[in-house]
Design goal:
binds zinc ion, five-stranded mixed sheet
Length: 292
């Protein structure tokens, strides 16, 4: 194979020896082209005796919309350094890590599509010709690396219900009733005064879920929350009273306006019935909550 093909593939330390059309996309055959790969990772000694070869397969960035995989024929070497605890080793290069199914760049591209380009996990999986759990794993690992262990100080914390996905139930034989195992309702926690956006999301709609999420934060972080914006739910109110007793509860604008509209509609309906002895028109019904 020409040097140009190797350069076009652009995987450092590897040279292309051939390309074949596989069932789902091209398979690129590779050999090691890095002198450093022949040095023992333990002692740094340059190996002279080969123990044979084996071929490993990895997925790489797709070619157009087709899967591309690599077949790397790599050597195993004996280490001749008498004091070295390592008897043998297999060639390794940084761009195609050992015992991994994906190249570094495929994994990085799949998670960057989610983390930086705003694509959904499913879309990134489709575009990269990988399964969605692979994208989730890459993204989660990246997020854990770049996000602080604890969020920065939050002065105004927002809590609201978020509807997500479909609920799931199982039938409990003993209790003779259906039990929810996946709640369609989640609670979202957001930083309303700073720029941190969504801080967390937990399943369920209970006070316990709110208290538990807050309790996972250090005491000084909780102490710095001065206001908490909620809808007028008694569940959130009691949770905040318990977990952040010093914080002032505020009700956000949207929910107050919604409630005021509902009250005005109710009064109008009652007055209409009293004065004219009939119901108001249907069009006077109040607007509904966007999240609920
Ligand atoms: Zn060695």
């Amino acid at each position: 194979m020409s040097d140009a093909t190797t350069r076009l593939l652009g995987l450092e330390g590897l040279a292309v020896t051939g390309i074949e059309d596989g069932q789902v996309g091209p398979v690129v055959y590779l050999v090691t082209a890095d002198e450093a790969a022949r040095r023992c990772p333990e002692s740094g000694t340059r190996a002279r005796r080969s123990k044979g070869r084996r071929t490993t397969r990895q997925r790489d960035l797709p070619t157009g919309y087709r899967r591309r995989s690599l077949a790397w024929r790599k050597r195993r070497w004996r280490c001749d350094e008498p004091s070295c605890p390592r008897r043998s080793f297999t060639e390794a290069v940084g761009s195609v890590p050992a015992r991994k199914r994906l190249t570094v760049r495929l994994r990085a591209s799949a998670r960057a599509a989610v983390a930086d380009a705003g694509r959904t996990v499913v879309q990134s999986a489709r575009d990269h010709r990988v399964s969605w759990p692979v994208v989730v794993a890459a993204f989660t690992e990246h997020a854990a690396r770049v996000l602080p262990v604890q969020p920065e100080t939050v002065e105004v914390l927002g809590i609201d219900e978020v509807r997500r996905g479909r609920p799931k139930w199982v039938y409990d034989e003993q209790a003779q009733s259906w039990q929810t195992i996946v709640d369609r309702w989640h609670i979202g926690f957001v930083d309303l005064s700073g720029g941190q956006g969504l801080l967390g999301q937990v399943e369920g709609r209970t006070a316990a879920a709110v208290v538990e999420w807050l309790a996972a934060h250090p005491a000084d972080w909780r102490q710095r929350v001065r206001h908490v914006a909620i809808d007028m739910s008694t569940v959130f109110k009691s949770a905040i009273r318990q977990a952040l007793p010093h914080a002032q509860l505020v009700v956000d604008h949207f929910h107050i306006v919604q409630l005021a509209n509902a009250a005005v509609t109710e009064v109008r309906r009652r007055v209409t019935i009293q004065v004219r002895g009939r119901r108001g028109r249907k069009a006077t019904a109040s607007g509904s909550c966007a999240t609920g």
